[in-house]
Design brief:
The protein has helices at residues 5-21, 46-62, 129-138, and strands at 35-42, 73-80, 83-89, 96-106, 110-119, 154-161. It is an alpha+beta fold. It has one domain (24-173): Alpha-D-Glucose-1,6-Bisphosphate, Chain A, domain 4 (2-Layer Sandwich). A six-stranded antiparallel β-sheet has the order 2-3-4-5-1-6. It is globular. It starts with a helix and ends in a 14-residue tail after the last strand.
Length: 175
């Protein structure tokens, strides 16, 4: 089978999304650590999605936003043209998780988001924390979240929690 024209472009984009979508921040935890990986489509361009995520994280210090999942504290570790890396520390300062998001723009203002959150200590059950770490940075008002700059519709197409990790969206809005 020979791919030509648009088929070749679409196949290349699919490969790019798949390759970008497998990126996780890593963990030095001994043995097992809880994690979650999500794939999300946002009805916005990726620069707006990335700006909203950064605004939420910056909003913690200014009081413009708080983490609805038990008031954790996020910080931006690094950023690239199509990647953001964050850290989230629980409100009791006991646990740290690292997050990596990658972004691919598609036509008509659609952004494909791939996110991965990993606990940095030995853990199995996480009460959906790694899932919520990710979700709280992209969810919109229709999901009960409070955007800072841009509100856009999102659709989660895949969630992949590790053994013992949860993926309950109702757990994310527990202050």
């Amino acid at each position: 089978m020979v791919l030509t024209g648009n088929c070749r472009v679409l196949a290349g984009l699919a490969l790019l999304v798949t390759a970008a979508g497998n990126k996780c921040p890593g963990s030095s935890a001994f043995l097992h650590h809880a994690s979650n990986h999500v794939t999300v489509t946002a009805q916005a361009n990726c620069s707006d999605v990335m700006a909203e995520m950064e605004a939420r994280v910056a909003g913690i210090a200014s009081g413009a936003w708080h983490d609805p999942h038990n008031r954790g504290t996020y910080s931006l570790l690094s950023q690239g043209d199509a990647e953001l890396n964050f850290q989230r520390v629980t409100s009791n300062k006991k646990y740290t998780d690292k997050l990596t998001f990658t972004f691919v723009d598609f036509p008509q203002g659609v952004c494909k988001i791939s996110g991965c959150s990993e606990s940095q200590v030995f853990s199995i059950g996480d009460a959906s924390t790694n899932y919520c770490n990710l979700r709280m940075l992209y969810c919109g008002s229709s999901e009960g979240c409070k955007p800072v700059q841009k509100d856009f519709a999102v659709e989660e197409s895949a969630e992949h929690p590790s053994l013992g990790a949860g993926k309950d969206p109702t757990a994310c809005l527990a202050v």
